[in-house]
Amino acid sequence: MIAKFITLEGIEGSGKTSSLKGITDLLDKKDISYIVTREPGGSSIGKELRAILLDPDTKISPEVELMLMLSDRKDHVEKTILPNLEKGNWVISDRFMDSSFAYQGGGRQLDKNLIISFAEYLNFPLPDLTLLFDLPAEISLSRVMARGKLDRFEKEELEFHNRIRKAYLDIAINNTDRIKVIDSSQKLETMLNNVEKVIEDFFNE
Ligand code: TYD
Question: Is 107 in contact with 160 (CB distance < 8 Å)?
């Protein structure tokens, strides 16, 4: 089987990270070699960009934020994602291009066509499968608050997170083959069962 590229997306506290183990357990069972990576911060330069991007003291415009996210992604694609796929390792990335459409497009309200043009220019690969973890922003923010110290995005108001959620759901409606929506407002066990089902269906395609 050709190595696959799977991405996890969703608003803050949507259960992406809790689901990761369920996904890697399934890959282990099938003896599939894979790497787990994330954005921002999936390359060594990316780690520095991540620190800048998440620091609540960083003051940057939405345009600069977009450029830093895209720089992080280009380096991540060149140094981590493509070399691993070429070696036959599946790549599981916690966030990818849909995050820029949802956060910088939806949240920061930058022009979506401009973001599409950048993505085309930078020649980013399209994931084979994307799991979108969805739940109301009120619930997600209350989960995030319970975790403690907030980063620059988590500190944004509810309306920002509502716009991100809506942007994600719009992308999902237009990409039903690639994006599978997981209801993360359910209890963890139910959510993990649904993740497992999506991955099993993907294997059987
Ligand atoms: P992270 O701690 O990884 O968030 P989470 O645990 O919720 O996945 O922080 C990444 C933050 O960066 C998150 O708030 C989303 C934001 N982000 C963007 O705004 N645009 C992007 O293109 C990416 C990849 C992330």
Answer: yes
